[in-house]
Amino acid sequence: MDSVTEIFLKLLFLISVRNWNMVVAGNKYNCDDQLVSGLPQSSFSSSSELSSSHSPGFARLNRREGAGGWSPFVSNKYQWLQVDLGERAEITAVATQGGYGSSDWVTSYLLMFSDSGRNWKQYRQEESTWAFSGNTNADSVVYYKLQHSIKARFIRFVPLDWNPNGRIGMRIEAYGCMYRSEVVGFDGKSCLIYTFNQKLMSTLKDVISLKFKTMQSDGILLHREGQNGDHITLELLKGKLSLLINLGDDKTHSSNTQINITLGSLLDDQHWHSVLIEHFNNQVNFTVDKHTHHFHAKGEFNYLDLDYELSFGGIPVPGKSGALSRRNFHGCFENIYYNGVSIIDLARRHRSQISFVGNISFLCLEPQVIPVTFLSSRSYLALPGTSGQEEVSISFQFRTWNKEGLLLSSKVHRSSGGFLLYLSDGKVKINLHKPGKTLSDISAGAGLNNGQWHSVFFSAKRNRISLIVDNDMTSSVHASISLQIYSADTFYFGAPGFMFLSGCPNSGNNSECKTSFGGFQGCMRLISIGNKAVDMNSVQKNIFGNFSNLQIDLCGIIDRCLPNYCEHGGECSQTWNSFYCNCTNTGYKGATCHYPIYEQSCEAYKHRGNTSGFYNIDSDGSGPLGPFLVYCNMTDGLPLSWWIGRTNETQTYWGGSSPTVQKCACGIEGSCIESQHYCNCDADRNEWTNDTGFLSYKEHLPVTEIVITDTDRPNSEAAYRLGPLLCRGDRAFWNSASFNTETSYLHFPTLHGELSADVSFFFKTTASSGVFLENLGIQDFIRIELYSPSEVIFSFDVGNGPSEVTVQSLTSLNDNQWHYVKAERNIKDASLQVDQLPQKFHAAPPDGHIRLQLNSQLFVGGTASRQKGFLGCIRSLQLNGMALDLEERAKITPGVEPGCPGHCSSYGNLCHNGGKCKEKYSGFSCDCSFSAYAGPFCKKEISAYFGTGSSVIYNFQEYYTFTKNSSSHASSFYADMTLSRETITLAFRTTRTPSLLLYVSSFYKEYLSVILTRNGSLQIRYKLDSHQDPDVFTTNFKSMADGQLHHVKIDREEEMLLVEVNQNERMKFILSSGTEFNAIKSLILGKILENSDVDEETMKASSQGFIGCLSSVQFNHIAPLKSALHHGSSAPIIVKGRFTESSCGTLTGTDSTLSETTHSFADHSGPIDEGEPLNNASRNDSAIIGGVIAVVIFIVLCITAIAIRIYKKKSIYSKNETKGSENEDSAESALKSELSTQNTASENQKEYFF
């Protein structure tokens, strides 16, 4: 098809849609005439009247006839005022007054409507039942423009509250215009067929619109098909509309060529529902009432190829659509239009394009069925029975969302027993009871709490009972019992939970009157007792039976999961009063799955103290993008940042290059292997070449697709590897502003969060109070403020009156430390959390307003409604997952400065092991210069493996300037190197004894040695007086030469010595050899290579040296291992022998290093610690299999090692030192090989291939 023709057809389609909208909408303009004022008195009716002068006929607005308005005989919640407009009208507004010159007025009311004066429906807006606010005096008029118009003949006002000093009094008016429509009725056995003039047509466009009403849950609304298997079917299934579209020549109706879209719910309520289907090529819009689904139809054909017939109400030829068996529609259609053609009008005029199957009428008959709504668990309906009859027969229909509830109860005549008919776990059960004994508990049906109508038939004759649900004989129950059942005088439907039968007596302890069953909440209809239908009109007029807390002549059930307010794929379930969201595996939490469980950036994880590794990141917070796995580089290296894709644009630059250059890294550097090319891979070489580098422009990331086309070179090959998304830093996390005056503020566009909104930020202040942010509407508002030094309040109003959520802290929040605030409001509840304090919640009122409607600017750090703003700093302000740029706005705002210093006061504790916090403009960093540890938070242990004879010597004197020819006495020469205190920390693992762990020498032949004795005990030897023997202190600890990692801390202050082993055992010793360590010379790890005058035990340990792992060694501010490994060229250090950096200091039973680099994809539905790295970034199955294999290998190795150890002779252990060295070197190689394999596996887990 050429483009001109296509454009013309699209314009034709738009014109057709516009024409249809004008036809269906009817009189949309000037539809505000008074509908009530001109009606005769006979058009008015009411539940009751106080007197003839208070009759409903006097209820016209601004009229003073009679007593000046309507008032009922008694003021209670069962009163109503009804108006018959004579014919169906479109009602666009209502108005109310109180009784003229009286104290009688209504302060709130419900508005109901009906076509027939039966089967009423409550007016709803904002997807919930809405009570109108009424009058505050007798004569002022309160006018309401309806959000959506009502099309009905009858309207009813139901007072809910009234002036407590008066009674119910009303004068009313309705505004709108007459509503014209064409209707047609189907009896469930008929259908209407519209035949096109063309015999066969391939349609580019179709617009079908109609309204329908029915009491049946199933039936065909329309159907059209073609010869090649194409068809469209609109069908009502279990009260929901299903649109089935099939394109292509597959007559088996496979899932590949079918689309089945379901919309709506509870559509079998005998009220009008609108349907619109718009089809253009393969694009389809499907709308039911206010809910629309847009989709692209599948299939092999470009156009839907259909026959010339379109049938309404059923499929005219059974079996034409393959094996599909459908029920015809039983109900009414209104205003059926097909591409602007009124089908009902053609049918009424008996045009040739229309044919009929069965009986069709051009009117809509209203079934005389009166439903009853049980509003609460204490609602009940008491109906009389015929006492003493041998047979009990009761039937009814019900619908509900609740799994539990008491349906029916009654005493048994001539017995103190009785029976209960109740719902339990969605099944109907019977409980037969007599004092002290339950005779039977039988059940029928399943899943009966699905909101559909279900029928129940219960019968009993003497000792024989029957229970049938949904006329399904396969699930019916028949049983014989030992209790003779006779009809009682009263049957209770939906009886309150505290009542067993006809109610408990006022005195005495009658245990049989109690029951644990809750009352029924839902709807009932077609109640029959003794095969005689119950007249609910008589019940409503209190002529027959009695009731409490019921709504008669309407079913008030609503589907709270339509629309689905559970966000991010959360699953919705419901009860009569509320709905619930299952957020499992969504990555979100909260009442509506709104708030993310993962952080928005690596920087957020980092400031919580997490190390590098894989993490789930939710880059837009509560926005539509889901979480994804990235590798977070927490180090202070190059600022690498990869991000979610922004556009689908084609990029022609590669790793190491930049956009628009169209070169690889070698092309920019001029280092390509062939100078005429700008990429190595362009060279036509026989060997493999590569172009490697980082793609660092986050606006273009991540890479979602790589395309490699054929170069037309014979025998050429191409390969690619795409690494993980690396993330570091977050400018938004540290984006902050300082508010210096109480009148200063920043303003931003209006906060948009009608149904759900979340706000989070950090603040610090010394002020006692202040408003963090505020956004106002006409009546609605949202505000978060520091109300007092220890109290944060989140307040808002969505039309139900102001609500507050308060969090109180036991400590002051104005301590100039950073504090975190998170507030969320959705249609179910509002929540507020401050720091790690318990989260506080405030439930939304049932069936109240749900939309937050704001229209002013968002004020940050100030307020439009108060004078006192906020003094202090606000940082990382996020609204619905989007960061506000406080710094940019602060640059142009008086009284506000960008940035906020002082991060170390809050986050300095994240710097561990002697690391010092250093302020940065955006955040902070940890200076590990004087720590034995490394890493972003000084938590990474520096470890090294010492082989046989190896030694690390740290010379202290090189920190000082000496004069070789100085004649000064040595005591003054080394005065600055005299210590009265020292702190030593180290960790080690070894299996060799004796061993020298650490030795500190002096120019005065004083020394300190830390050794493992031959039996493996830890010994500390201080010699602070060259003329005395050393002080020797031995820890009372088991052998520490067990191959496990042990931590030692030694603190000396003068003669007091404290020793701590493995962070839990502490010992205290007193030195006798002196208090000063004079003229320290060097610190030695491993073997002492110099001539030293030491004691015999230290000499034995030194002769062995140390073979094993030393980790995180620190002597005061000196870290010799770190200096040797990382600063060997600049530090005063000498290394001898085999000495290699290792991760042996972090291995504890299982490889804990892997926990920093391998993490899990799994979501968590319950409470989790989102700050921890995720374990096992591979598939769970692989992890389990790998774990099993590892365990098996470990057991085999252990058994082998034990067998070898038993077999070997003791002489094996007395080999010479060289042999031992070889064994240790090979053991270290094996350890390194194992670590290398593990790390390689870990790195492989980090790779992603697209």
Summary, kept brief:
The protein is mainly beta and 1250 residues long.
Task: Write structural notes for this entry.
With 1250 residues, the protein is mainly beta. 11% of the residues lie in helices and 37% in strands. Strands 1, 2, 3, 4, 5, 8, 9 and 10 form an 8-stranded antiparallel beta sheet that branches. Strands 11, 13, 18, 19, 20, 22, 23 and 25 form an 8-stranded antiparallel beta sheet that branches. Strands 47, 49, 54, 55, 56, 58, 59 and 60 form an 8-stranded antiparallel beta sheet that branches. The protein is elongated, with a radius of gyration of 42 Å. The chain starts with a helix and ends in a 5-residue tail after the last helix.
Question: What are the key terms here?
Answer:
1250 residues; mainly beta; eight-stranded antiparallel sheet; 13 helices; 37% strand; elongated; disordered C terminus; membrane; transmembrane helix
The largest sheet, given as strand count, sense and whether it forms a barrel, is: 8 strands, antiparallel
Strand content: 35-45%
Query: How far do the termini sit from each other?
Result: 36 Å
Structural class: mainly beta
Uncertain residue segments: 1-28, 250-255, 321-325, 497-515, 637-645, 958-975, 1148-1172, 1175-1196, 1198-1250
Principal-axis shape: elongated
